[in-house]
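Friendly challenge for the regulars: who can give me the C-alpha cells for this chain first? No prize, just bragging rights.
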Amino acid sequence: MLDLAETGAGTCLNVPDRLGDTVTKLPVIDCAKPHTHEIFAVVPYADSDVFPGDEALNAFAERSCTGKFEPYVGVSVFDSTLLMTWLVPTLSSWNDHDDDKILCVLADFKAEPLVGSMKLSNR
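First reply, four minutes later:
Bragging rights claimed.
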C-alpha cells in the first residue's frame, strides 16, 4: 500500500472489488504484473484554497481527466477499450493534509486485468 501523496502518473494498482468510499492508501503493484487500474494523471485543483465540494471537484476531474487521457494512452477516451475514472480529495484530506489533487485512473472496460503500462498503448 502506498500513501496517496506518493502516487503519480504510471502508478499501477491492484484494487479489490470493494475499496471503500474513503481511500488513504492505494494497493500499488508493479505494472509488469496483472493489475486492475493505472493512474494516468495527477491534477491539482487550484481554483480555490477552500474545499469546493464534491460536485465541483467531480466536474473538474471529469474535464481534466478527459483532457489528459488521450496524451497518455494515445487514443481518445471515447475510442478506447479502457475506461476512465478518478479519485477526488475529501473534506478532511483537503483540510488536514493540504490534499488538492485529483487522481485520474484508467481500467479495462470489461474489467479484464491489465499487463504492462497503458501509456501510449493506443488501447
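The longest helix spans residues 54-73. The mean pLDDT is 89. Your move, everyone else.
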